[in-house]
Amino acid sequence: MGQAPSQPGPPGTKFRVIGAGMCRTGTKSLNEALSILLDGPVHDSGVQSLGGSLHQVNNWLEIMKHAPYAKTLAQRKYVEYLLADLTDGYVATVDCPAVTLTPELMALYPDAVVVATTRDTESWWRSMEFVNGMMSNWYIAFLIMWVPKVGVYGRWRDLFRQMALWRYGDDMIVKETLAKHEEHLREVVPKDKLFWYNVADGWEPLCKILGVPVPDRPFPHNNSRDDAARTYRELVLAGVVSWVVMLSVVGLLGWMFWGRVPGRELTGAVRSAYKEIRYSNASTR
């Protein structure tokens, strides 16, 4: 939430970082920091899967549909193919749902390092619970169903629940998810490839991980609680406007159709004749 989708760079752009931190651990800040340090676009899967091109949105839905059930080599290669198509032209990935696919991304990019943003569990859960409260309510998927691209959120949410159940044993992100996710990373990522990073520490630790100089500019801090709330309000407003437009169009079409229904003119003539008869009868009394 709170960031615009990015456009891929030239095909074959060197992919260097798998951002594996759970959402609400500073992934949006890492996104901007990596785009500065690596001089290329970062594929924020949370943003691209709901606000990117239709091709990206559909591919992410397809990945989320198949990844939890990919048992055979052909099924796993299909998921990898879709991931390769989505990440071509980017220097890194961050956020959900990509973080649940760290092993699959490592198979695609064996030379990439895994940078996992992390934070204190209590502060993370306060932030995550706040976002869950907005995006997991019963009405938001219905409200935004006519908004272009993000209208698939209802389906996205259902598919991500399958992903979370597959990886963490819970059908949504709960307080224990952060620990489960980080333990999963320790199990699947080689120690020399896995780097833990707190965005509160600024440039130096991240630059050391990547082997690049510290830039002469402030470290970006994006997607605060206020940013998330503002994005949510914008979604609600867009949803309300889309429903007003949709209902107006339906009403206009209904009015146009009703005005052309065969026999309606006859009904109107009969009604007029009936009024005239009543008037005549009243006059003769």
From TrEMBL:
InterPro entries named among the record's database cross-references: P-loop_NTPase (IPR027417), Sulfotransfer_4 (IPR040632)
Pfam families: Sulfotransfer_4
Membrane-traversing stretches: 138-156, 235-258
Domain of life: Eukaryota
Keyword annotations: Membrane, Transmembrane, Transmembrane helix
Protein name in UniProt: NAD dependent epimerase/dehydratase
